[in-house]
Structures are given as C-alpha cells and as structure tokens.
Write a structure and sequence with these properties.
The protein is an alpha/beta fold. The chain contains 12 helices and 10 strands.
C-alpha cells in the first residue's frame, strides 16, 4: 500500500554517494529522495544503482528515477521494486500516458510523484495529476525556466506554480512540492521561498541540503501572528451573531480558514 505520510521537506541525496544516506535519514526530512537522475553522470548511473541496492537505506525512501524513454529508466524502476522504497519521483513528466504506464508498473504500492519541469508539463498538469496512482506533483523551476526562457523572479513562475496547485486540488491529491532553493547556505532565502510556496497553496518544498529541512518545515507551520488571529476568529464565531475581527467581518469561509490554521499549527 502507498504510504500516506505528508511530505513537507523531503531531502535529495545523490545516488552515487551512499555514505550520505544515513546523514540524510537523520536530518528530520520526511523522506530521502535518492537521485539517480541529475545528480549522477551518465557513465556512473549503473554503479550508482548498484550502490543503492547494496546500501539498503532504512529511511522513508523515494527514488528519483531517470525519465521514461532514457536507457536507464526500466532498470531504475526494477531497483525501486526490489527496494523497500515507498515511492518514485518521475522527472520530465509531460505525457499522461507515460505517467500512467509507470503507475501501472508500480502496481499502486508506491507513491508516484511526477516532476513537472517544462511548458508541456504545465500544460498537461491537470491530466497528469488525474492519473490513477499519482499521489503528488512536484515543480522543477530550473528546467522550466530554461524551457520557457523566463527569469527567476516569483512573478515569472507564478502561473506555473499556480497551475500545479490547481491541478492537484482538482485531482484530490496532496498539495504539490515546490522546487528547492539552490542558495542552500542562506536560511533567509530558503525560508522566504518556502513561505511564498505555502502562500500559493503548496504543501512542501524540496531540499538539497540537510540544513534546509528545518527552515522549510518551520516555514510551513503557521507563525504566532496567524495562530493568534485564528484563535480570535474562532472565539468571535463562537460568541454568536455578527462579528468582526481586526475590522474584517467573520463568515463561514473565514472561520474555515482559521480552523485550518489552528489544525496546521497543532499538526492534527
């Protein structure tokens, strides 16, 4: 059966660096994403696969396989089925038919996270999210920027990110994962990007360094001001009759948002 634990701050680790697996597992990440794709040179992919098989990583493991149609894809999927891996991250996801073929190969027993990294992928995001067996989408902003020729300002990526949030909601799957902050030494930058993603409706953010795990997790938890506002709203709603909080009239959607914030704050 597919594991249902929500992913907020999963951490990438190169597949050809098995000595890092234990450290990644101890980082507090929701899952370790063992990367057989971008992190491994073509000449090293077979050896990396063998290293992963031999290491038997004990964490909650997702494997980023090589894209469908590459020479390494089928061998990567075979590896996942032999491991206790709970999921597959499928890069370069653009074609719902190919995504569905991977889902069938996993037999509904693993997470399947298509990584959307292109204009075509964004265009087909609703169909990809609706594929049976897909559990969550993820965004690859670096490849997307290269594909469409846009900059890295938040507004340049707003349509793509919002498209993934919408597609996920329509499909009834977990909110998507945002791409990583590549300036991994800067806690402020990682936190800012994570808060922006949460504001748009993302459920988490990919990490490329263990230090980012805590920064991302903290950014996806409501801060003290949000919690205080939510408590005031719930208290006002409980008093009966018309009410306002901080100059805003309280109605059912506002109360629902306040209750969601309190639920997120307590992890319930």
């Amino acid at each position: 059966m597919t594991e249902t634990r929500l992913l907020i701050a999963p951490l990438f680790v190169p597949a050809d660096r098995p000595e890092r697996f234990a450290k990644a597992a101890a980082s507090g990440a929701d899952a370790v994403i063992i990367d057989l794709e971008d992190a491994v040179a073509p000449a090293a992919k077979e050896a990396a696969r063998e290293a992963v098989a031999a290491s038997r990583p004990g964490a909650t493991v997702i494997v980023r396989v090589n894209a469908a149609g590459t020479p390494w894809h089928e061998g990567d999927i075979d590896l996942v089925l032999r491991l206790d891996a709970v999921g597959v991250m499928l890069p370069k996801a653009e074609d719902p038919t190919l995504v569905a073929a991977v889902a069938r190969g996993l037999g509904g027993r693993r997470r399947l996270i298509p990584l959307i990294e292109s204009a075509r992928g964004i265009h087909r995001a609703i169909d990809i999210a609706a594929v049976a067996g897909v559990t969550q989408l993820a965004f690859g902003p670096a490849d997307y920027r290269n594909d469409v020729g846009c900059g890295d300002a938040p507004e340049a990526l707003l349509f793509a990110r919002s498209s993934l949030v919408l597609a996920s909601r329509l499909a009834g799957i977990d909110a998507p994962l945002d791409g990583p902050c590549f300036d991994f030494r800067d806690p402020g930058r990682t936190t800012e990007e994570a808060r922006h993603a949460r504001m748009l409706g993302f459920g988490g953010k990919l990490c490329i360094h263990p230090a980012q795990v805590t920064w991302v997790r903290d950014a996806f938890v409501p801060d003290e001001a949000e919690v205080a506002w939510a408590r005031r709203v719930v208290a006002a709603e409980g008093s009966g009759g018309a009410a306002n909080v901080d100059g805003t009239m309280i109605d059912a959607p506002v109360v629902a948002r306040a209750r969601r914030i309190l639920s997120e704050a307590t992890g319930s």
